[in-house]
Amino acid sequence: MSDDKGERLVGIVLVSHSAQVAASVAELARGLAGGATAVPVAPAGGTEGGELGTSAELIAAAAASVDRGAGVAVLTDLGSAVLTVKALLAEGDELPDNTRLVDAPFVEGAVAAVVTAAAGADLAAVEAAASEAYTYRKV
Amino acid sequence: MLDAAFFRRWMTATAASVDREAERLTALDSPIGDADHGSNLQRGFHAVTAELEKEDPQTPGAVLTLAGRHLISTVGGASGPLYGTLLRRTGKALGDAGEVSEAEFAQALRAGVDAVMTLGGAAPGDKTMIDSLVPAVDALSDGFTAARAAAEEGALATTPLQARKGRASYLGERSIGHQDPGATSSALLIAALTEAAGE
């Protein structure tokens, strides 16, 4: 549907053990993407009780909130965040269609994903850009 | 034959066992983990028993898929998706039969354990729950009591291993000398089978 071109941006979910980390990385990525406010980005950090951990419910709600029909890229920090997203994907009906766990470094990958999504790229391109962040060596 | 009531007793017995052993699980998780294994599993299995009470599933498969789904959504640590996947996949493998044989259950549990290995990427010898679950499934053809003994032996045998998966793997050689909390809780889950069977 060509009249939707430019409207349907890939959604991005940032899953961290910490609510503050998830929210701050979302803010950082948007900021470094030149205030890419049109990109739907949702943090899913910590447990529902506000403790350190991972919440399947918060992840599912965040993914639903950023789904514009162009797919959802999920970036995670480590451990249970990765395992919970994988388990939800295996469940089949807990996350929007075309949701992918993206293998990427959390902070750098989030910036790359938001910048790429802001340009109207599709899910595969957003995933590739985020994963490519692994190759940016610092030393 | 094993019916839905048996599998509910299994979950209830696991919840009670996790309650009794929560402090020990958390103590095992302190030197090599983040000291939340006991409380996380307690929260998860309490949610499971409450949900079984409310939903009243009528088949073995439905009991375990419901239990698995609630472990994934309530635990908050890695044990949630891991135990959740174990039970959900086992439940799915049981299909919608009203009763299953012990052999069918053993086969389904193996499918569940395989799914956990795929999800977490762990193999036997990595100092994880797999080190208790794999011997248990292998021994299940000799009955629940044999499976229980194999699971407990497998959990004890994790002590000299170096962790290769999860947070404990960051400790490298310093993870040696500690019994793995996940293998220990897996042994509790398997031991609860004997309680459900009244053995």
TrEMBL record, chain A:
Pfam families: EIIA-man (PF03610). PROSITE patterns: PTS_EIIA_TYPE_4 (PS51096). The keyword Transferase applies. Residues 9-139 form the PTS EIIA type-4 domain. The keyword Transferase applies. It comes from the Bacteria. Keywords: Transferase. This is PTS fructose transporter subunit IIA. It comes from Streptomyces lanatus.
UniProtKB/TrEMBL annotation, chain B:
It is an enzyme of class 2 (transferase). Keywords: Kinase, Transferase. It holds the Pfam family Dak2. One of its GO terms (molecular function) is phosphoenolpyruvate-glycerone phosphotransferase activity. Its EC number is 2.7.1.121. The keyword Protein biosynthesis does not apply. Residues 5-195 form the DhaL domain. This is Dihydroxyacetone kinase subunit DhaL.
